[in-house]
């Protein structure tokens, strides 16, 4: 049986150094939990408190968040690369398409750790491209109605320790209409000569009738340095990202799996004086999504919810990460809507489900300013 995610600890407060990053706009609500876990890990391994420990901890947290920023790093327009590198990419890509590349062990580990992906049949893509010494290998892919997952490896770019704090890659994925797919999550081993990555993109908004879709993956390495705060009195260090190589571009095709079970029956539950509504449940072969909307108790705070999802008597594995939903039509305009994503293979499960929201959390503007509203908002539904 797949390992179950940790249950949230409702008594823990969000540390002020993490809240400072949130308040400055450098982190979102969905970044809080991994940052909090990273902070706890640092504290457990830290020596006894000393005068500079708090400031050092804050700087380490900022650096760790900078490492995660490759998720939202935006590549420059490809027109800036120039025609010669683009031609080189095209030629090498054509040659590389005929080379058989075994999927590396680390990438297989990433796939195996994902409850949804380990139960589906992905495609070995075996595509390669090189500019100078920088090489991109697209090794594996899968797509269904909820998400598109792509596994790739990069190698051949230098990251001088004396010049950069760390190096990583900027990634974006374009569909056949040159629309960029939103990123859901990513993981990777970003040290060593060859770096492996598994990226998950949101495929739910794609409108196509094609049995197979062509995509374009763009990957650009960059180095990161820190600079002093630009605002007087601020303690938040700023990051500078310097491109290390021209971006590599590869096109590939994936067959579409349009299988999806969608439940659109709206349910409402009230507790602690607040009403929450279940709007939608979507099940695909690799992922389960649940959409909750509510009127925020305080419009001056950023609100999220703590969910607990079960199918039968078993807790649904795969996370429960929160994706804010802002498009018109999901609810009243002033509502807050959170979509919980579970990377769990529940498509073939039929029967009784239960979603329980155990807490509303509203984050304010400074430090540990939080409004926490405990309760039990319960939604029972049946997947036929």
Number of strands: 19
Beta-strand residue percentage: 35-45%
Main sheet summary = 6 strands, antiparallel
Distance between the termini: 23 Å
Percent of residues in helices: 10-25%
Q: Low-confidence parts, pLDDT < 50 over ≥5 residues?
A: 1-12, 46-51, 69-101
Helical run tally: 5
CATH fold label of the largest domain? Immunoglobulin-like
Would you list the SSEs in sequence order as H and E? HHHHHEEEEEEEEEEEEEEEEEEE
Q: What CATH architecture label of the largest domain applies?
A: Sandwich
Rg over CA atoms, rounded to whole Å, is 22 Å
Shape: globular
Characterization of this structure:
With 384 residues, this protein is an alpha+beta fold. It has five helices and 19 strands. It folds into two domains: 183 residues, Immunoglobulin-like (Sandwich); 123 residues, Conserved domain protein (Immunoglobulin-like, Sandwich), CATH 2.60.40. Helices cover 16% and strands 42% of the residues. Strands 10, 11, 12, 13, 16 and 17 form a six-stranded antiparallel β-sheet that branches. It has a five-stranded antiparallel β-sheet with strand order 1-2-3-6-5. Helix 2 crosses helix 3. The chain starts with 15 loop residues before the first helix and ends with a strand.
């Amino acid at each position: 049986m797949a390992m179950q995610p940790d249950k949230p600890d409702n008594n823990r407060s969000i540390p002020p150094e993490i809240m400072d990053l949130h308040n400055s706009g450098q982190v979102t609500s969905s970044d809080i939990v991994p940052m909090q876990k990273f902070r706890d890990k640092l504290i457990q391994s830290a020596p006894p408190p000393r005068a500079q420990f708090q400031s050092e901890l804050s700087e380490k947290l900022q650096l760790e968040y900078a490492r995660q920023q490759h998720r939202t790093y935006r590549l420059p327009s490809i027109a800036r690369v120039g025609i010669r590198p683009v031609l080189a990419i095209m030629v090498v890509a054509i040659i590389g398409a005929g080379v058989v590349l075994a999927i590396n062990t680390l990438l297989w580990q990433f796939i195996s750790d994902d409850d949804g992906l380990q139960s589906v049949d992905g495609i070995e893509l075996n595509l390669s491209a090189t500019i100078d010494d920088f090489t991109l290998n697209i090794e594996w892919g899968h797509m269904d109605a909820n998400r598109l997952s792509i596994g790739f490896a990069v190698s051949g770019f230098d990251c001088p320790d004396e010049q950069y704090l760390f190096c990583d890659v900027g990634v974006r994925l374009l569909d056949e209409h040159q629309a960029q797919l939103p990123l859901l999550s990513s993981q990777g081993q970003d040290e060593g000569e060859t770096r492996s990555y598994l990226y998950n993109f949101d495929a739910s908004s794609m409108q196509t009738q094609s049995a197979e879709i062509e995509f374009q993956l763009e990957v650009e390495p960059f180095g990161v340095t820190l600079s002093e705060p630009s605002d007087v009195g601020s303690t938040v260090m700023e990051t500078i990202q310097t491109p290390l190589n021209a971006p590599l571009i590869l096109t590939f095709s994936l067959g579409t799996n349009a299988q999806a079970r969608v439940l659109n029956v709206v349910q409402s539950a009230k507790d602690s004086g607040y009403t929450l509504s279940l709007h939608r449940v979507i099940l695909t072969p690799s992922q389960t999504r649940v959409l909750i909307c509510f009127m925020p108790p305080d419009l001056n705070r950023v609100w999220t919810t703590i969910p607990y999802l079960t199918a039968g008597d078993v807790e649904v594995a795969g996370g429960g990460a929160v994706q804010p939903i802002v498009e018109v039509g999901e609810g009243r305009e002033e509502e807050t809507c959170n979509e919980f994503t579970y990377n769990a293979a529940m498509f073939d499960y039929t029967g009784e489900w239960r979603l329980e929201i155990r807490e509303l959390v509203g984050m304010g503007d400074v430090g540990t300013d939080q409004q926490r509203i405990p309760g039990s908002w319960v939604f029972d539904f049946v997947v036929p």
